[in-house]
Amino acid sequence: MTFWTDAHCHLQDQFMGEGNEHAVRATLERAFAGGVNRVVVIGTDAANSAEALAMTAIDAPVEVYAVVGLHPHDSTQDLADVAAIARSHHPKLVGIGETGLDYFYEHAPRADQRRAFAEQIALAHELDLALVIHARDAFDDLFEILGREGVPPRTVIHCFTGNTEDAAGCLELGCDISVAGIVTFKNADALRAAVCTVPLERLHVETDSPFLAPVPHRGRPNEPAHVAVVGEYVAALRGEESSAFRRQTATNTARLFGLPAQ
């Protein structure tokens, strides 16, 4: 059997703190029952990243890996603590992020976002780790910084929300594209058109859970089991056979994060 991989989730945001191992395990057991056998848990600051890494030790039927970083919303913080975690060379640590630019909310000044993004690109280069990018209403600056700093060989734009032109720019720079539940939303026609232009070998699926639950789960907490909903939807949208799409996206995510072959 071929399984789905959830390329991006935030289990620690739903289950922060000690004593929640049972709830995490139950969530991962539901994911496994739904055909998911790998998840990548993403950090957004030093404490959150440490929690993501701790999730990898939970005994569950799903393989758990971690990415550590400083989200653009938190980019006024010092990167030093995140960098120290990244340099620990933990065997389940597979990437840097999520980093990037968010000019929609602008919870941090743009100058701080750009600085933190450049620093984390450098960290991904230094450690030869994948880079996980958050990009919202900021593709021009994103492309400029990536062009200046150099795109790490394994880079993904997570929860892609752009149009076909944005997708083309990402692909031209060498970035992969990951699709979340937004693609199922009623007002996402431009995103759906863009997703259909991405070569299959450059595509990933994710939940971004506990956020952005796909239709028909919208309005409720998201979880890794729902990556199957996203994946089935995108496969049908692109006119591709579900099992082949599932197998290829899982292979893509394994390549991106340097995970063992299945």
Description:
Helix content is 41%, strand content 18%. The protein is built from ten helices and eight strands. An eight-stranded parallel β-sheet has the order 1-2-3-4-5-6-7-8. Helix 5 (110-127) links the parallel strand 4 and strand 5. The model has no long low-confidence stretch (mean pLDDT 96).
Topology-level CATH name: TIM Barrel
CATH class descriptor: Alpha Beta
The coarse silhouette is globular
Helix content: 40-55%
Radius of gyration: 17 Å
CA(first)-CA(last) distance: 10 Å
The total domain count is 1
Structural class: alpha/beta
Please state roughly what percent of the residues sit in beta strands, choosing from under 5%, 5-15%, 15-25%, 25-35%, 35-45% or over 45%. 15-25%
Strand order of the largest sheet: 1-2-3-4-5-6-7-8
Query: Which superfamily, in CATH terms, is the homologous superfamily?
Result: Metal-dependent hydrolases
The CATH architecture name reads: Alpha-Beta Barrel
Mean pLDDT: 96
Q: Counting H and I runs of at least 4 residues, what is the number of helices? A: 10
- Give the SSE order as H and E letters: EHHEHEHEHEHEHEHEHH
